[in-house]
Amino acid sequence: MLTAITGINWGDEGKGRMVDLLSQDYDIVARYQGGDNAGHTVKNARGKFVLNLIPSGILRPEVVCVMGGGMVIDPVHLEKEIAHLREQGITITPDNLKISDRATITMPFHVEQDGLEEARLSKTGAQFGSTKRGIAYTYGDKFMKKTLRMGDLVHMDEGVKKRLETIVDSKNLTMVNIYNQKPVSVEEMWNWCLHYADCFRDYICDVGDYLAKADDAGKKIMFEAQLGALRDIDYGIYPYTSSSNTIGAYAPIGAGIPGRKLDLSIGIMKAYSSCVGEGPFTAELAMTEEEKDRLRESGHEYGAATGRPRRVGPFDVVASRYGVQCQGCDELALTLLDVLDYMETIPVVSQYRLSDGSLTVRFPSGKTLDDAQPVVTNLPGWHCDITGVRKFEDLPQAAQDYVTYIEKAVGCKIKYISVGPERDACILR
Question: pLDDT tens digits, residue range 196-211?
């Protein structure tokens, strides 16, 4: 049983919360792309946890977590994340956390270059809204075959050091001649690698072999995505995307078992829209600044990895319908429905008006998306506290109608409805 838990929109849809809930029925949870540039916030009986690299399944002692080869891993951040989780009482050992030997290492110079380039672009207002975690530069160097992988930390020999010298020499052409920085030191990077080899050597393995054997044995495997469909490098709001494939079809590939196929795709989307970073975000044009401020505060919309205030707006049918199609969803989870409790009337972006005046429900790209304006449909609110509701039929009629409206508009069944951050604050339909 191979299941993907994926984001429908711009990320921050509540995937970690749903993985934490649904992982009770799974043996393995595997991350398959991305790095520490986004986070999953999970609240349960054990406390509040912010996870950037480690799969959310780590909060269940019986679940094995896998960091797949499609990821880029900053060992500095991973070491700190593990330490923080252990301080919160979470057990992490090579038995319940396995790191792919094929995952790419984010080096200190990737993080430095990310910050330098974003600062350069910001002078002309052309910045991407990067988290400055080095993700794009790690993936870029990966495709230019100028990176080390986690498996290299297991074999720190002269061959690896020679490759590191070649990588650093190439990087210094950029750091010195373009950014006017001091050269990166090979010896410093080698000693840095030696330190993290000692930290993670026992965790690094062939996770593809592990996952394939687990699948053959009938184990249930959940693939956990970072960000959402609209941040996918190929199908998202390019160039304001992440640097990896966030869609579910990539899950078996990025996790380590490219020859396997998904059995189930569960898409996660919020009951409203939120977005971190730059790029077109039509939904925010449908609200006044005062309305957005109130929604942001009600939903506590601040980035888990960065703390930045998220851009917010009404639920976007056009963007969500496209995300559902990209993710090949079999069913959906609608999160944070309770955030809308305060609204007497709930706006929904039902169509886009294009620059030529025409209306569309098809999600556009490029200049067409940049110029699109929201067409709003107002639905009645329920204006009461629904956080204690556990059955769909016990929701106020207006809340039921809101869910069924969205379900019909995006073309996929909503099976789960989150009405609070706790594990049990979820309605199963």
Answer: 999 999 999 999 999 9
Q: How far apart are the first and last CA of the chain?
A: 21
The Cα 223–Cα 26 span in angstroms is 10
Q: CB neighbours of 297 closer than 8 A, spacing ≥ 6?
A: none
Low-confidence stretches of the chain (pLDDT beneath 70): 129, 303-306
Overall pTM > 0.90: yes
Domain containing residue 148: 104-200
Sign of CA dihedral 265, 266, 272, 273: negative
Domain limit, last residue, from 182, 200, 218: 200
* pLDDT, tens digit, 9 for 90 and up, residues 281-306: 999 999 999 999 999 999 999 865 56
Both 44 and 75 in one domain: the answer is yes
Domain count, the chain: 3
Active site residues: 12, 40
258 lies in the same domain as 290:
no
Residues 281 and 144 in one domain: no
